[in-house]
Hints:
The chain is α+β, with helices and mostly antiparallel strands. It has two domains: about 1-50, no CATH class; about 50-125, no CATH class. The chain contains four helices and four strands; from the N terminus they run H-H-H-H-E-E-E-E. The strands form two sheets. Strands 1-2 form a two-stranded antiparallel sheet. Strands 3-4 form a two-stranded antiparallel sheet. The model has no long low-confidence stretch (mean pLDDT about 80).
Amino acid sequence: MEFVDIYFMFNSLESVAAAAPTSVNTVAVGVELNVVSRNMVESLVVPTFRVGYTITTDALDALYKKIKSKGVTMTELLAKATALALAKHPVINSSCRGGNSFVYNSSINIAVVVAIDGGLTTPVL
């Protein structure tokens, strides 16, 4: 789903909600879920791009088979691999400010969305 689709989906949902009054049960969310929700919606305005190519994961698969019995998940391995790639290529972990400079982050933060009762959370690994 592209940004434009998501943007119009949110806007049309607001229009539909305003046009069709019904009885609803509103439940306040906690501070953490409110922050997660706000950050996820705000991230929709950040330009994104995708690059894809085929990779061989034989070494990753072998490592996973070796350490799976210790409780390590594939998600954790992929998060670690991502962190290592960001450390090796810091430009990927940077952001453009005002179109005339890059800010290189001194830390690497990986967040994975996790479903919890009543919503989502994004613990930083």
